[in-house]
Amino acid sequence: MRTGLIGLGYWGPNLARALSQARQSEFAACCDLDAARRQKIARQYPGVAMFNNVDDLLDSDVEAVLVATPIATHYELARRALLAGKHVFVEKPLSDTSVRARELKIMARSLGRTLMAGHTFVYSPSVVKIKELIDSGALGEIYYLSFSRVNLGLYCKDVDVVWDLAVHDVSILLYWLGEMPARACSFGRSCVQRAKRDVASLWFQFASGPVAWCEVSWLSPQKMRRTCVVGSDRMVVYDDTEPSDKVKIYDRGVNLRQPESFGEFQLSYRLGDMVAPNLSNTEPLLTEVEHFLECAETSSAPRTGGAFGEDVVRAIEMATDIGWQASDQSEETAVSSRFS
Description:
Layout: E1 2-6, H1 12-21, E2 26-31, H2 35-44, E3 49-51, H3 54-58, E4 64-67, H4 74-83, E5 87-91, H5 98-111, E6 115-118, H6 125-136, E7 142-152, H7 161-177, E8 183-189, E9 199-205, E10 211-217, E11 219-231, E12 235-239, E13 247-257, E14 266-275, H8 284-298, H9 306-319, H10 329-337
Parallel strand pairs: 1-2, 1-4, 2-3, 4-5, 5-6, 7-10
Antiparallel strand pairs: 7-11, 8-9, 9-10, 11-12, 12-13, 13-14
Helix pairs in contact: 1-8, 4-5, 5-9, 5-10, 6-7, 7-9
């Protein structure tokens, strides 16, 4: 499949490398307004056509387009690519509002094109392993999940720390639990840049029982990528900064013994073994890109398709007090008819 890439900034070169390595990809074209960026990629991939205009790339014979541009541009570029008949991959988040994300989802469905959001961590062997543990019941009832994603920088010009970092953890959370939160809230502070939070905490409550919170910061002396999942039978710690043994499963917990007499209250603590499962060392980004191309070729649903991308944006909006109302079938039908 002939592929094109729009955006050669921070993340674009990583996608370019993945496209050049993907089995199903013929990396054919790139587009960026910056001539220096285009020249750098042209030196690395001499056979790739370079464009400074999106319409020129969309008019070419590429079949699939990957978008790695600032968040505010995601909707318009994805919309134009879909209308041009391309399969579309959009770096996280899918759009800057759930309304726009939903419209892209409906448009792709109506046009018979694959739409996928680039939530790379959902394709990580560590995250997939924990999903298997949760779904199998090995952890028991899930009590709570905690996420810490902090570092010093990199500050973004266009979005705050929630839209930059928390999007990763929200995508992992929704993938693991397979449901939308029933309630959400957040708080934070703008310490360095006015009106852009660089530290924040998000809280989520799910109808099935679990609660979760995410700590994100651009203003921390240490880099931390640590997640804890606590169940009634076992607990899991996932530390993405570890060079090995990124996932550790603890056979630990607390049991409340039934009282045998009035006033008796006793807890028993279970301190079992720790197991670090053997995980694949495949690169999540390459796995993600190959999954997108395979779905485009076979018309199968991506793991992080338009509906999932919309859900992630919607959960962020719930936590940040941006109102959202579920669309009814008539609205989806009206939007869909415009692109049929």
